[in-house]
Amino acid sequence: MKNPELNQAPKTSHRTGYNFRAKLEEHRVPLTPLSMETLQVNVTKLCNQACHHCRVDASPQRTEQMDRRTIDRCLEMLSLHDSIKSLDITGGAPELNPHFDYFVVQSRKLGKKVAVRHNLTVTLDGHPQTGEEKAYLPEFFARQQVEVIASMPYYEKDVVEEQRGAHVFDKSIGSLRLLNAQGYGREGTGLALNLVHNPAGASLPAEQAVLEADFRWQLRSRYGVEFNSLYTMTNVPLKRFKEQLKRAGTYDQYMGTLVKAFNPAIAAAVMCRSLVSVDYSGRLYDCDINQVLDMQIAGKEPMTVFNLDCGVLMQRTIKVASHCFACTAASGSG
């Protein structure tokens, strides 16, 4: 799965080669807001796992949680703005927020499409701090017709567990089977189970269509698991992964690979043009990566769900930095 170009990638200066805004201008790519179609909400940084590639540094020790007041305000936004068609709930493991079920149910009552970024193992592990069981999740997801976007880096056990920890692979397969039993990933049910692959380490993902066919055959023939689509994600050089690259002395090589693979067509269609991201405290960002870097959307003052001005929001300049090269490399992320 390693990209041979990585070792040949040019060392580029941080001042010029990693300037994403300059790259957009070079290719005459606009990066202005088009819509507010998706509200992406990070409801917690608590997770039952601590993956090496996690860009939000989620772990079983984190305590950040979105409170009921902020969730109610997000629901009010969904109710007031017909342009917002989808709610994308993320974490950490979002299911560990005490108001998660309420958020899903109320959003569905508003007629919104709801997607949950699911790590699969939380169903079997439960809450890492309280011990609360989460075995009901597959049935709950099916009843609410939630789109499940599940982390599944690869179909080989050793690759997955090197990235995500011991016993994660077997639990993930078990959880996928539980979702399949509810109808997820099966033709005609309308229950979407989409997997997310990211490479193990400093390489670009393989071509998405080829990798999806490979995943489908391997998971079906080995484990009897079905899914709808596979999304490939490029590892973003932030937090734990950036520290790993720095320790290995390969950060500049990896950044050079991302810059070299810049795709103008993908850059023009990035999600931040039609998405607004909300952190656990209600602050607004152009995307979840900007959220990690605290690159907050601002008008006259930093914008939150409580002082949201849609006019300002649609006229804003989307904030970019070197991490944006991960979203626009080759076939892009997702």
Description:
This protein has helices at residues 20-26, 68-80, 100-109, 122-125, 137-144, 157-164, 168-181, 208-223, 239-248, 251-260, 264-267, 288-292, 310-315, and strands at residues 38-42, 86-90, 113-118, 147-151, 193-197, 229-232, 275-278, 284-285. A hairpin with a 5-residue loop joins strand 7 and strand 8 (284-285). With 334 residues, it is an alpha/beta fold. The chain has 13 helices and eight strands. The chain has a single domain, classed as TIM Barrel (Alpha-Beta Barrel).
Q: Mind summarizing the main beta sheet? A: 8 strands, mixed
* Tally of contiguous helical segments: 13
Tell me the name of the CATH homologous superfamily. Aldolase class I
Secondary-structure-derived class? alpha/beta
Radius of gyration, in Å, reads 19 Å
Give the strand tally: 8
Order of helices and strands: HEHEHEHHEHHEHEHHHEEHH
- What value does the average pLDDT take? 91
CATH topology: TIM Barrel
Strand order of the largest sheet: 6-5-4-3-2-1-7-8
At CATH level 2, the architecture is: Alpha-Beta Barrel
Approximate helicity band: 25-40%
CATH class placement: Alpha Beta
**So what's the overall shape?**
globular
Low-confidence stretches: 1-16
Number of domains: 1
Strand content: 5-15%
